[in-house]
Amino acid sequence: MTEEQAVTLLSKEDSHEAYSYLYEMYWSKVYNFARLYISSIDDAKEIVQIVFVKLWETRTFLKENESLKGYLFIITRNIIFNQKRRNFNEDFYKSSILDAYTEDNINDSCEAEEKMYALELSRFIDALIQSLPERQRECFLMSRVEKMTYREIGERMGISDRTVEVHIMRALKYLKKNIILFLIFLAQ
């Protein structure tokens, strides 16, 4: 079976055999393309699966004289960019919540219920910060509360700027991951 025959069979007859043929022919190319943008092997494999599900869902729109390879790479690119955009927006949202719900930022104009939720969230964040490993907690508090630079923190603690950065990145990752659970709980 040729690629053109497989595309015709897939688009006109919903052929599973043609689909399998195209999958075997293109999965490694799609995977390698995804790996250019995605560092995680598992995430790249998941993208390959999404691409081929999308191929099956849009099979009736396939045209014999158009490049299937080009079509698959456009789908792959769009999926990767959409996921990156979604992840960026989610990370930005979580970070905004961390910044917005400190006790210093809770103003008196909030409704009573909002103020209560904000205080609960603030206490939860404080508890999360206290649960961080000691060095991470120290770096995080110096950075966020004392507004110190990585260099200043490093000098005070006797560690490199890069080590400070790693501590703060890990602390933020932990806080962001756990804060979403609390927000889900509040929403119920």
Outline the structure in words.
With 188 residues, the protein is an all-alpha fold. The protein has two domains: 3-88, Orthogonal Bundle (Rna Polymerase Sigma Factor, Chain: A), CATH 1.10.1740.10; 101-187, Winged helix-like DNA-binding domain superfamily/Winged helix DNA-binding domain (Arc Repressor Mutant, subunit A, Orthogonal Bundle), CATH 1.10.10.10. The protein is built from eight helices and no strands. Belongs to the sigma-70 factor family. ECF subfamily. Residues 129-187 form the HTH luxR-type domain.
- The CATH architecture classification of the largest domain is Orthogonal Bundle
The named CATH superfamily of the largest domain? Winged helix-like DNA-binding domain superfamily/Winged helix DNA-binding domain
- What percentage of residues falls in helices of 4 or more residues? over 70%
The tally of strands reads 0
Shape: elongated
Number of helices: 8
The helix/strand series, from N terminus to C terminus, equals HHHHHHHH
Given as residue ranges, the uncertain stretches (5+ residues, pLDDT < 50) are: none
Q: Briefly, what CATH class of the largest domain?
A: Mainly Alpha
Helix-strand category: mainly alpha
In total, how many domains does the architecture comprise? 2
Protein name: RNA polymerase sigma-70 factor
GO molecular function: DNA binding; sigma factor activity
Domain HTH luxR-type: 129-187
Keywords: Sigma factor, Transcription, Transcription regulation
